[in-house]
Amino acid sequence: MDVTRHPFGHLPDGRAVERFDLTGDDIAMSVLDLGATIASIRLRDAAGEMLDIVLGFDDLMGWIDHPQFFGAIVGRYANRLRDGRFTVDGQPHAVTRNEGPNHLHGGVVGFDKVLWTGEPLRSPDEAGVVLRYTSAAGEEGYPGTLDVQVSYVLDAQRSILIDIEATTDAPTVVNLANHAYFDLSGTGSILDHEVAIHADRFLPIDDAKLPTGSILPVDGTPMDLRVPTRIADVIHNDDPQLRLAGGFDHCWVIQDPEGTLRPCATVSTHAMAMSVLTTQPGVQFYSGNAIRRRRGRGGATYAPHSGLCLETQHFPDSPNQPAFPSTVLRPGERFHERTLLRFDHG
Fold it and tell me: Domains of the chain: which residue ranges?
């Protein structure tokens, strides 16, 4: 296992961006310090070929010109906040509105667009990188200075650990997630992927794709993915929830106990299989409904349903939903969540 670092171009303001390459015999990944971004994950498939299973771009301008959170850490608050507002300890706060009247994935300049500081992590059996960023009080409207650390660790067993920590100097809200788009087949479409989500409840949404506040059973709905289900067989179901999102863009409630690393979801194709374990209370399954048509890595054309996301996270709009788990972080406390991706042949 090894880690190397390489120049990866410059931002418009002249700051240099670095790429960290983590390599093993049958697995490799690249991480950018811009957005703490997973730029690629390459795995040897059953035919012995190295297959890149996440969407990305050949050069830095791809990430700058086409911001749809490809592979990045999103925050301070992943997902949506209604009307760009929340209250902590009776004090109202307004954050930037970047999706109509609502706040999405940290705002206009969220964590996906900032330059982190990266350092390699090396051991005989693992290769990794730790990235750090300090979000100043008032950034995008959030209270408190937030110190964030994200570690990506690759091991020889074809696993990737995503470890996220944060501390604050004033009460604030925090919800951090990775936003990689996966295509385990390399075909440019995820409609033939089989997905299973180990959850018997989900959060229904309204026409703004925000949770209504209810927590409903999946029984008898297309949200029942407790057994592996081919996406194409359900995504066009004439269900109100699927119509509202144009496909899947919902949060599932992962079974207790919260805080333990437990199975969350699986995705499989003929070529590759991925298991997701997490300590987070929820997972947002997004079927890439709104991916804008563009040129991606290696000349591939990306379009709706070219990739899928399994964003392990806290619930959307939790600060405005008293029934949801709290996302408030206070001085002296530590936000710490982990997600483990395990890969095998399909």
Answer: 2-345
Check whether domain 2-345 has CATH 2.70.98.10, yes or no: yes
User: If you write DSSP's letter for every residue of 197-232 in order, what string do you get?
Assistant: E--SEEE-B-TTS-B-S--EE-TTSTT--SS-EEGG
Which one-letter amino acid corresponds to residue 101? P
Cα separation, 149 vs 160, whole angstroms: 16
User: Which is nearest to 286 in space by CA: 234, 321, 249?
Assistant: 249
> Which position among 250, 311, 314, 337 bears the catalytic label?
311
Q: Choosing from 179, 193, 250, 305, which is the catalytic residue?
A: 179
Q: Do 37 and 54 touch, CB atoms closer than 8 A?
A: no
* Mean pLDDT, the chain, integer: 96
Q: Does residue 311 carry a catalytic annotation?
A: yes
pTM for this one? 0.96
| pLDDT (tens digit per residue) in 38-59 | 999 999 887 888 999 999 999 9
Write a three-state SS string for 291-345.
Answer: CCCEECHHHCEECCCCCEEEEEECCCCHHHCCCCCCCEECCCCCEEEEEEEEEEE
User: What's the rounded Cα separation, in Å, for the pair 318 and 79?
Assistant: 10
